[in-house]
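Just wondering, can you check both lines?
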Amino acid sequence: MTFDRYFDKASDRFSSYYGNERVTRALGRGALFDRLRFAVAKADELGARRVLDVGCGSGPLFEPLASRGIAVTGLEPAPAMLTLARAEAEKFPELIEVREGSWEGLDGSESYDVAIALGVFDYVIAPAELLSRLAAVATSVVASFPSPSLRTEFRKLRYGVRGVKVHGYTNAEIESLADEAGMECAEVQPLGKAGYVVHFARRS
């Protein structure tokens, strides 16, 4: 089972985490809100007008970005998640577009101020290619990464029985990915045991 098929089947459960922050934090998933707020704050700080949300899921980034007047293009491969995202996008029809697809289809033909990939690097087998494609369409990238911890090892076991691979990243590996993509780690914010959220800036 690929990760997009897995998230298709588990779409309601994953989207529900954003419904009640107190409950989600009690479940040990508070990093979902921490990384989301970091991404929104960074887009706002950078004065972004166009944002690409890769693996947008049910669209938790849509409202906080669009309410700031930021246009968002959401990219999502899982059909059930797409349905949820399109329903969320209806709140801001002039600012939000949702497309079916994945990062592999990014060809550099469009440009954005910021590309966001939260909870995506966890599952890809070609992280260097992913970051390079994001760097080709945006001058800044915000992405989250699990750390190689006991928590991540448990995730590997839990997801592995469903045929989904999970990857952890050290700080050195993240720096190496940035270097290969022609970017630099402008800011790294720890997410407790969950890992990191990183702002990558394109080298001038």
The chain has a mean pLDDT of 90. The chain has one domain: 3-102+109-202. The beta strands are 50-54, 71-76, 96-100, 112-117, 138-145, 183-190, 196-202. The longest strand covers residues 138-145.
